Amino acid sequence: MTASFPPRSMLYVPGDKPRAMDKARTLGADAVILDLEDAVAPEHKAAARENVREALRTPWPCPVLVRVNGTGTPWEHEDREMALLAGVHGLVLPKVEDAGTVRDLHLRVPLWAMIETPAGVLNAAAIAAAPGVAGLLVGANDLARALRCRPHPERLPLLHALESVVLAARAHGKHPVDAVFNDVRDAAGFARECVQGRTLGFGGKTVIHPAQVPAANEAFGVSDEEAQAARDLLAAWTAARAEGKSVATFAGALVEQMHADEAQDIVNLWEATRPRA
From 77, 143, 172, 239, which residue has the greatest number of CB atoms within 10 Å? Predict the structure, then answer.
């Protein structure tokens, strides 16, 4: 299965937790990332790979990706070979620092590059432009450690890096996805960070707990009210164009083609993600 819209939520699930992988099918995430990297201890890597292989044998209700171990690790080749042969919808590659790493892989599936080092941030534009890259995922934990910055409730030390990733992805038509929120008990904090991420321009968020999925879908989705406002704007624009006008007026503001295009994107996302009866 392939997504018809940018993922609002991408749920990480450890590859050494078969029950968690089974449950992930039912949680409503727009995409699931079966994780063979950070979430799996070295002594469990081989078993996790087999668990993921088994999980990919049956269809999923959403796109499923595999986060493989990075280049230069003992597990990289076996991870990628397993995922590709199993028919995964995409690969997540950790700690991508330059476009050459992506180009050298010659993958047959979309690649989601993790930007989680200072070098990765500085080279984000070239990475986003590389063939086969579908999106950029922020790895804020590793990035913060590498930058030696302190925790901040508004992520102030990381704002430049976060916006750099958004800028790079958007410049090349790729999907920027925000980093995980670590405290799964802090629902209010997670909601605030989702709002911040969307304000910065991210299209979705990586999540690590089932309870975070609905909140991310809501924060990065479209409400019925937003969809109706977009349809009303499009109606005003269509009427104005039928009269030969180059601009329209809606809710007291001038509307041009760029506003109509944005409204159409909102309607398209609402149509793609609204619950079906």
Answer: 143
